[in-house]
Sequence to fold (891 residues):
Amino acid sequence: MTNMDELAIFVKELEEQLVICIRCGLCQSVCPLFEQTGKEADVARGKLALLNGLMTRLFSDPDGVNKRLNKCLLCGSCAANCPSGVNVLEIFFKARTILTGYKGLSPVKKIIFKQALSNPKTFNTLMAWAGKFQKLLVKSNKTIQGTSCARFVSPLLFSRHFIPLANKPFHKSLTALKPGSTVSGIRVALFTGCLIDKILPNIAHASVKVLQHCNVNLIIPETQGCCGIPALASGDRKTFNTLLAHHAKLLQKQKFDYLVTACATCTSTIKKLWPSLYQGNENSLKKYLDNLSKKTMDINQFLVDVMHIGPYKTHEDDNSSETVTYHDPCHLKKSLGICVQPRQVITASGKYLKEMEDADKCCGMGGSFNLSHYDISTKIGKLKQKSIVETNCSTVASGCPACIMQISDMLSKTGSSIQVKHPIELYADSLL
Amino acid sequence: MKPALLKELQYITGKEYLFTDIEDRMTYSYDAAVLDPKIPCAVVMPGTDEELGKIVLLCNENNIPITVRGSGTNLSGGTIPEEKGIVLLTRRLNNIIEINEQDMYAVVQPGVVTAALAKAVEKIGLFYPPDPGSQAVSTLGGNVAENAGGLRGLKYGVTKDYIMGINFFDATGEYIKSGSKTVKCATGYNIAGLMAGSEGTLGIISEITLKLIPCPTCRTSMVAAYNSIEKASETVAAIIAGRIVPATLEILDNFTIRAVEDYSRAGLPVDAAALLLIEVDGHPAVVEEEGARVVTLCETMGASNIKVAANDQERDRIWSARRSALSALAKLKPTLVLEDATVPRSRIPDMVKALQQIAKDFQISIGTFGHAGDGNLHPTILTDKRDKKEWHRVELAIEQIFDKALEMGGTLSGEHGIGIAKVPFLKKETGFSSIEFSKRLRRALDPNGILNPGKITGV
Ligand SMILES: Cc1cc2nc3c(=O)[nH]c(=O)nc-3n(C[C@H](O)[C@H](O)[C@H](O)COP(=O)(O)OP(=O)(O)OC[C@H]3O[C@@H](n4cnc5c(N)ncnc54)[C@H](O)[C@@H]3O)c2cc1C
Ligand code: SF4
Ligand code: SF4
Fold:
């Protein structure tokens, strides 16, 4: 049996999910990548056909398929719009695992995932170290979004205006938190997420402020780390499993009614991918993950659906309310169907919400897609930037730190004065 | 394909727009039809008419078959290429060249997406009615080449009724102009008309002039529920006989109603045997009068319940339920075969009965919905192609559907075209000499047989 035969057998495990695609081609209308390139191999229908090709041993090596499969934002726009209900993202994640298992991780990713990401403690130390040194590499742009660009021409950074690592990650401030009084009796655990912890800790501080204001009993489990999506997207199922097990163990020790996160990607990973991609055969853990999935909530949804935050009370010193527009993160709207609550949080902050054109169109970030295909990612991002600017807003809000980074990059490049915030930051600011 | 030829193609379009890797080529080996794929030897994506013309010329000189592809959503295999041929993508030819408000027409390139044109003209109060279910992705070139229909066919007709002019490259690379921007045109053969439904076999369309009409000012929608599908289909015949022409007159059978309700919880009556979804539009006074007459007709024909949409939201809910019919059915089984055999509309009750019998005889699941008012039902067969025995029964059932439709004076295809899928059945409908006539036409216009060989007339 050749290696390709063996690979075909692995891919065949996806057959039941692959046959659901009826090749209708409707995903072409929503795929942000296809909009740019017009290439069938870039859209879900083409990628699923390629996997079918692997199964039927059409190719002599898997490199070409692997390359095309990895060229994807994993935004889920295709799945959200698919008439046949193909679980596109799950198929892509599983296929990436199979192909990575077959080909092995790239050396750089191996170091990052195996040695750093899978162990939250090491990862934190490493990032703290990187945070100190990056000052040598980047200079501040002095733009309102707080981005930095490469001081030296670096092949990885191109002309990105990226938000630098925070001087003090959120988890370092943890000990300073005062425990909240428990008037409401609701116990909430906060899952911070890597990007918020290390790059946008203000979002975490705002979350804490708001949750404490709501009088919930707040717990922030220590040694929490990454939800595992970067590893999964690179097909490193092992690291993903390690992280999953770590967090399951950590969370099982705590008592809480809701696990709340301010990161759209973490929420959708914990809710959807943790239970569906858990590979072990521990029945009790499987049950726990299903249960956890039900308890996990986006912070906007928590505020609106559980805390029933009221409408904004005007203060005396208000003159005119500021115009804010909102960008729907794919992982909130397309993956979880959450789009009303973040908007309510914005208006509850006393802001005037003005919708942009195509608010739910992907911003082009797509995690590591932005690193590997910066040119296309930028083209997609520019469409978003245009829609934002057209609203004449002073702030754009979005419920996902990855989207915030991409939008910041796009706006900062044009020298725009529009701020980029998480709805929770706006709400926190509105509390006196 | 010879490397020298590939080089020439690359010279025409540039490296970025010629795909030769097996992985890219295989993604152009299929379309939305349930047929076996065929991988072309190259795929090109020209950016201008000039490039398009050069490609056709080059292929003709070298006997290379060309299959044009818009979005590849056709349901009859019209874009499944030849293994020794190329696929030509119209994706980059996607400009709306002109929208003329005064003379009410639009000039477009073939790669413009149907919904994009509809949206652009609606902004200025004009209307482009053909609305195939695939309009969010399908291209106007593909619509013309398949003579696509939609939900509004009953009153507003299909794509061919909006074609005023078409410019195209013939098989030898000559640029042919046909039709005009005038309402009337009696200059020579109706060549533009011939291009409607030509499935890429007579020429490669590069510019289309389409008729636009004013937006209807008023509309009203309603749903009528029946406890027998016969009564519903008899109502359809009665509405037509009553000289009322609704914009849309759609039917859903019980199987489809239940699938839609499971899928979208739209509040449909799941115990109804059939539903009619009806919309009348036009001048407010006419809409009011015709709307009332339709309601009375439905009542006298035995509808158990009639609901008229009170506002736009209710109207949208009705049509989104209809639009989700295919999705809802698609979720039930891996393979979905969407048929579109069509009968004269007075025969709808007979056709509905025949379909029920066929489902029973061949022990297969058929959900039936569609454009009842046009006589164009979409019996949708749900199966799993990997189940060889059932698949065989499905093939027999499809043939039986065709036979029944033809017996009633109908046609093999209302709007999905012949492509490869229905080639073997064409003779049943048109007879030998029509096929021979079409073949002679093709040979004369395309001596080397490079334009989408194998489609419509077979080889
Ligand atoms: C979910 C779904 C719903 C659908 N609903 C409907 C419906 O309601 N009504 C309906 O009529 N159809 C419907 N269809 C079928 C299909 O969408 C139509 O046939 C549509 O017109 C095809 O457009 P396309 O751009 O995908 O063309 P393609 O599939 O790419 O091509 C179709 C044919 O046109 C030829 N062609 C394309 N461009 C050119 C050109 N520039 N010059 C010459 N030939 C060309 C091709 O060679 C091919 O033979 C549906 C399909 C799906 C998947
Ligand atoms: S929309 Fe869904 S079923 Fe249709 S081609 Fe895309 S993935 Fe397949
Ligand atoms: S996940 Fe997004 S980028 Fe990837 S195929 Fe689907 S729509 Fe396209």
About this structure: Chain B has a mean pLDDT of 95. Chain B has five domains: 3-89, 96-214, 218-322, 328-407, 428-459. Residues A 24-26; B 31-32, 67-75, 78-79, 90, 110, 132-134, 138-139, 141-143, 145-146, 148-150, 199-200, 204-205, 326, 415-416, 452 surround flavin-adenine dinucleotide (ligand 1) (CB under 6 Å). The longest strand of chain B covers residues 218-226.
